[in-house]
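chain below, 126 aa
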Amino acid sequence: MRAAQFSAGLLGTLAILLALIILVAIPIKVGAHLADAKRKGILWCGLAAVIGVVAGELAARLIGGYIGGPLAAFLGFIIAIRYLLGTSVAGALGLTIIAVVVSLLAFWALAHFWLVGADVNNLHAV
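prediction:
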């Protein structure tokens, strides 16, 4: 492998990683502004997304058997958002809902304009 090939592969990987962080952090940043969070920066929002996923997974593993895995993961994500961004519990709940809606709209737009592998014009029911 030549140095130019390695450099192009590394730059492509970094570009994809940056796009992923932006697609996840921007909806949380929008929600943080609407929920009047204390910390609204893009880095805080990206960190909140990463820590929220880890906290959700941890909560699902620890208490998922009692209340269900998805509900435990949702609560873990809300608690992480609440403490990292400095919102109230109601603000964290609203922020999570706003972030999910904005993320779904962004992924729909990506699929609609053929920027991902889904062909939304020819979906067939099974």
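The mean pLDDT is 78. The chain has one domain: 3-122.
thats it, cya
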